[in-house]
Each structure stands twice: as structure tokens, then as C-alpha cells.
Design goal:
2 copies of one chain form a homodimer. Chain A has 283 residues and is of the alpha/beta class. The first copy, chain A, folds into 2 domains: 8-58, Roll (Spermidine Synthase, Chain: A, domain 2), CATH 2.30.140; 62-281, Rossmann fold (3-Layer(aba) Sandwich). In chain A, 26% of the residues lie in helices and 30% in strands. Chain A is built from 8 helices and 12 strands. Chain A has helices spanning 62-76, 92-97, 113-122, 142-146, 173-182, 200-214, 265-271, 276-281, and strands at 8-13, 17-31, 36-42, 47-51, 54-58, 82-87, 105-109, 135-138, 153-159, 183-192, 219-225, 233-239. A 7-stranded mixed β-sheet of chain A has the order 8-7-6-9-10-12-11. A 5-stranded antiparallel β-sheet of chain A has the order 1-2-3-4-5. The longest helix of chain A is centred in the first third of the chain and has 15 residues, at 62-76. The termini of chain A are far apart. Chains A and B meet through strand 1, strand 2, helix 7 and helix 8 of A and strand 1, strand 2, helix 7 and helix 8 of B.
């Protein structure tokens, strides 16, 4: 069966596999200084944000990505006051972060202001945290921005696109060095590090480079399933010299309010149990 | 971008989402008594088996499904001698089961002999276990077949298609009753129970019906990621009144040989940590 171009949006992965959604309406389609931005209304995945032809956010499954980027780290940090999110212009990560009352400031450094504005317009629930008084948006290159800070942040999150186009600088070793310098003692960095199943080279390179920067035992990849991303099995990497992401978390009770859809303390610990082939990739 | 019908195979899920693979060659395309069977050679996913238009097996990711169907149960059963697999004509589950020396017999009850033969021909590694001397293939209706036994099997695995067409009978409450009767004391049943993300009604119905048959505490859903299945996040349900799937497993050391790609004892325990939305679906 073939899909008609007029009704389906398709992301093709390396001319090998493709994921498609049927849409009822194209809501937004503009080319910013950095990339093409498209937003579709779909029945199967709700509203969908496409950057540079790739699925970034869907109302159906992005809660998995945003919760698993933010809560494993936030729930084990006992007092995270200053947080930096690099990329993540949809605001979903910030929305999760402002659920913690101890946070004093969260800065979103997104290079493309049109991504932020289009998400404020079309994904009001996902971007809701951007209107919190503790949140500020900076439109700058994330790698250059974080390099200005030393001993500043309790948590740095890297919510990047794939390592092509505007996201490429966020997979460089010099960027990882800058993140490490920007962290306060006891701080944590969490980066999205691609799919270990379909993008194993990118995953292995990220973990290897992060180990060189943070030290091998400080670097802990973990997984969640994000159906709209190629490969579905998605990795994040938790980097900290001081904080154990798998132990009992002082902060977990704060999240017992039932407003999360994916994260639980047990899910956090489970996410670090890597399948055998992933363990072997990074042995 | 649109996909050409001549080079891509596409599975469309409820006219809402679609997953596609580009193929270099169509290796097999026949209509059996039960369904259309297609096999493609692809670069992205290796060889791919399609039953009734749905992805069943890919060389790239089926190890996840087969290992997670079989090993969580086999590794916690200390002496599983007699095993029944219902469905699973690709032989992948049997191939995992015959890795255990204590198994005396494993019966594959697959309704469609053309599925078995085409997998023997085109997926020799996945179906390799079918040539083990302890394995036998029965071509029969799985629901009718299992109803003939009482107090017979240590493990019954249900490796079904979706609950339409030939797979529909394998989602009936009477079938679950028959499985329970066929088990020996201390026996375990594991069933594939669809995606809790895209097929939540089917998942909830299966878990609810299994709880009525086996008793609520005996029924434990668990998850793995199978990228080529709709929704990616796939569920299995472990049913046993006697065996705890999350505790320490006597048999785990047998699997330390390094021939598994996904399963580890830690992955088994982690698979039972359900995301919050899945917990709520089956509260």
C-alpha cells in the first residue's frame, strides 16, 4: 500500500525505514534561519512538530521523552536550584522542571526562536512551563552559551536534535567539556544520546566522549521507548561524579502527586538496566 | 515526501500511523489458507516477514521480542521440561527455548504450515530451533489444541498475531481457561498482549481476562521495545500462581554464556517496572 503525499507526513530514516502519520490539517510550515518547521494535526499522534523533516514532538508520546529526560536527574538531586536546558525549544523539559518547588531559575537556551514561538502557539500544554516566573528563554547557540559559565548549574539538560544541522555542535567533545565546567559540585548533566538500535555509532561516540570528559564511572546511559523516534528505543546519558542515579532518591516522594504519566521511581531504576547488546556496544 | 509502492512495504495502523521499510527484493508472496504471507529483503531491517499486512519478524529487531517472550519465564523456572508454544510459526521462540538443556519437549502449535515452511526457508537462524530433536511442530488451532491437555506443561507461551483473523481465538477468555488447565503445578504462561500505548483496549482486556482466570496477583504484565511493531512499546503478560518473575532466578547463570542479545537478569526485573500510565490502565 502506498501513502499519498497530500495526507501523510513521512520521516524517512537513511532511505531504509520510515514512520508516517496521517494528518487532517497542516497548521504551520515555515523555514526559519535554521530549519524548516512544520506542525500537523493528526488523529493518531495528536499535534506533531517536525524539525528539518524529523519528528520532534507528538502529543501522543512526547511525555515519555520529556519525563525521562528530566525526572531521573531531578528526583535524585536533593536541591537543584539552577537548571539549564540546551535545545528543547518546545518547552516540554522546562514544563517538567518547574514542577519542583526548589528550582529558582531554569534557562532554556534554544537557538531558533521560531521553534519556541510556534510551540507556544500550537503546543500550549507542552510549553506551559515557559510562562513560569522562574523560566527564561535565551536564543543563542547552546555550545557557546554554556561555555560562558563555571560552577553555575545544578543540572544541565541537553535536549538536542540529531547530530546534523543546528544540532551538530551539541555532539562535540568541546561542548561536553564546557558542560562539565558549568556544573556546580554535585551537579548532573543529562543528554539525549540517540537510539542504540538504529544509530549505534552516534550513541557509542557520545558515551565514549562523555566518559573521557566526566570519567567512566560517572557516565550512565539509560533508555526509554519513544515510538515516534527512529528505532523507538531511545537513550539518555546521565553524567555525574557525585550522584548515583539508581539508588534511593530523597526527592521521589515529591512526584507521588500523580501528575506524571511515565516516570516512577521504579521506572527510573529500571531504565538503567541495559539490554545485553547495548552493554556490549559500550563495553 | 511520499513512498513509492514499488520499493517500500508499508504497514498502516488504523489509518493513523504507518511504518515502512524499503526493500531490495520481494522473496516470497503467497496466500495460504489463513493469510497472505510476504517476505522482503531490506537493508534497514534485514529480512522481514509480513503476515496479513503486519510486521511479524525482522532480522534487525526480532531478537528483542523472542528473547523477552521466552527468557523471563525460562530463567525463573527451575526445571521446565515440557513447553508449548502457540502461534510463533517463525520458530524464534522455540530457538530460544532449546537453549535450556532441561527441556525435554517443546511443541510448536502453529495453525498455518506455510508460515513454518517459509520461515525454515528464509529465516534459517531464527527458525533453527525447529530442527532440535526435542522440538515438534503441530499444525492445529492453538485454542483447540491446548484444550486437550490437563496438568501437562511447565510453560505455555502464546506468540500470537493481533486479535484479528487467525489470531482472534487467542485473545478469548475460554482460551485462557484452557491454558490454565494445561499447566502443571508451578507452571507459567506468558502471552504477548499488544501495545499498551497504541492498543490500550486490547491490552487492558487481555490483562483483565487473565486476572479473572489466574487470579489478580498471579498476572504480571511486562514490557520491551520492539521498534517494528506499532507503538514500539510492547507488552507480555506473565501468569503464575507459584513463580515470582521479579525475584532472584535460580537459572540465570545458565544464560551467562553471552549468546543473548537483549535479555539479562537485570533486564528481566526492569521489564516489570511499568510506566505510570500503564499502571493506571490496569489499576
Amino acid at each position: 500500500m502506498s501513502l499519498t503525499e497530500s495526507e501523510w507526513f513521512t520521516e524517512i530514516w537513511k532511505d531504509q525505514t520510515a514512520f508516517s502519520v496521517r494528518y487532517s490539517k497542516k497548521l504551520f510550515d515555515r523555514v526559519s534561519e535554521f530549519q524548516r518547521i512544520e506542525i500537523f494535526q493528526t488523529e493518531g499522534m495528536g499535534r506533531v512538530l517536525i524539525l528539518g523533516g524529523c519528528f520532534m514532538v507528538t502529543e501522543k508520546d512526547s511525555f515519555i521523552y520529556h519525563e525521562m529526560l528530566v525526572h531521573p536527574a531531578m528526583s535524585v538531586l536533593s536541591d537543584a536550584r539552577r537548571v539549564l536546558v540546551i535545545g528543547g525549544g518546545d518547552g516540554g523539559a522546562v514544563t517538567e522542571i518547574v514542577k519542583y518547588p526548589e528550582v529558582e531559575s531554569v534557562t532554556l537556551c534554544e537557538i531558533d526562536p521560531m521553534v519556541v514561538q510556534s510551540c507556544l502557539d500550537y503546543f500550549p500544554e507542552i510549553s506551559a512551563g515557559l510562562s513560569d516566573s522562574r523560566a527564561q528563554v535565551v536564543n543563542d547557540d547552546g555550545a557557546a552559551y554554556v561555555a560562558r559559565f563555571e560552577d553555575e548549574f545544578d543540572l544541565v539538560l541537553v535536549d538536542s536534535t540529531d547530530p546534523v544541522g543546528p544540532g551538530a555542535a551539541l555532539f562535540e567533545r568541546t561542548f561536553y567539556d564546557a558542560i562539565k565546567r558549568s556544573l556546580r559540585k554535585g551537579g548532573v548533566a543529562v543528554l539525549q544520546t540517540e537510539s542504540p538500535l538504529l544509530m549505534e555509532k552516534e550513541f557509542v561516540k557520545a558515551v565514549t566522549d562523555l566518559r573521557e570528559v566526566f570519567g567512566r564511572p560517572a557516565v550512565r546511559p539509560y533508555l526509554a521507548t519513544v515510538p515516534s523516534y527512529p528505532g523507538g528505543l531511545w537513550s539518555f546519558t546521565f553524567c555525574s561524579r557525585d550522584v548515583d542515579p539508581v539508588g534511593q532518591a530523597p526527592s521521589d516522594p515529591r512526584l507521588a502527586r500523580g501528575d506524571l504519566q511515565y516516570y516512577t521511581p521504579a521506572v527510573r531504576r529500571a531504565a538503567f538496566a541495559l539490554p545485553a547488546f547495548v552493554e556490549r556496544l559500550i563495553e
